[in-house]
Amino acid sequence: MTSRTMMMAAAVLAACMAATTGCTTPSRVIPTGATAEVVAGFSQDDIDSVVNTILQELNKASPRYAVPGKRRVVNVKDFTNDTLSRGINADFLAKSIGEGVRDNLTNMNGNFIVFNERMAANAAAAGQPITVTPEFVLFGEIKQRNMRKDNGDVYQEFVVNVRLVDVKTNLEIWQKRIPLRKEVDGANAMNG
Questions:
Q1: What is the pLDDT of residues 109-136, one digit of tens each?
Q2: Residues contacting 183, CB < 8 A, separation 6+
Q3: How far apart, in whole angstroms, are the C-alpha atoms of residue 111 and residue 56?
Q4: What pLDDT, in 10s, does the model give residues 41-65?
Q5: How many other β-carbons are positioned within 10 Å of the β-carbon of residue 107?
Q6: Other beta carbons within 10 Å of 25
Q7: CB 113 within 8 A of CB 72
Q8: Domain spans of the chain, in order of start
Q9: In whole angstroms, what is the distance from residue 123 CA to residue 129 CA?
């Protein structure tokens, strides 16, 4: 073997070793409440931030719809996914935001109480009367837009649109647009 061939073989071996050992990110647990690194797409920190923003903004607006001594009933629908990423991960993201809003709104001591659609359907199927009906419906959707920069990186914009609709009038009485912007390496962009 020539020295050139041996050097090439050594370089290939070193590259393979680096790829399989030293260049991998070690797994670790991120404690609850701790902030993780920025990731392409949505992280749990992003989901928590969006849910908290929705609840804060809804809470600020809720006195306009308050009835003294009564909590208003809202049906929180699952959020829809209209991002470039289709499939189980993106649908899970939309579902996570809807469930986060539903869970936190249920546990808040505010002007709203959450209508449980599943329990109402079970009661109706069992012939039990439904004594509470929703006064409002909360809808949400997630949209995504990617813009490629000259250097190949991607500027991602996710937007969560939330709407509160009065069931009697079918009028949209509250809405909030929550943007989440990230700049990521083109190879790591969440684009399906």
A1: 777 878 887 778 888 888 887 778 889 9
A2: 149, 153, 154, 155, 156
A3: 12
A4: 677 788 888 889 998 888 888 778 7
A5: 9
A6: 6
A7: yes
A8: 39-187
A9: 7
* Structure tokens, 50: 């969006």
Which architecture, in CATH terms, is 39-187? 3-Layer(aba) Sandwich (3.40)
Helix pair 44-61, 88-107: axis angle to 10 deg: 40
Helix (H, G, I), strand (E, B) or coil at 26: coil
- How far apart, in whole angstroms, are the C-alpha atoms of residue 154 and residue 183? 6
In contact, 98 and 91? CB cutoff 8 Å: no
User: Please, is 108 exposed, middle or buried when counting C-beta atoms within 10 Å of its C-beta (0-12, 13-18, 19+)?
Assistant: middle
Tell me the average confidence (pLDDT) per consecutive run of 10 residues in the chain, 192 residues long: 66 59 52 58 80 88 80 87 68 83 80 79 82 88 83 82 94 92 69 48
Task: DSSP letter for 137, please.
Answer: E
Q: Where are the beta strands (DSSP E) in 115-171?
A: 136-148, 154-166
Helix (H) or strand (E) holding 91: helix 88-107
Q: How far is CA 53 from CA 112, 122, 136, 177, in A?
A: 16, 32, 19, 10
Q: What is the mean pLDDT of the chain?
A: 77
In the numeric block, the tokens 């109706």 are attached to 124
167 contacts 135 by C-beta, under 8 angstroms: yes
Say what the pTM is.
Answer: 0.69
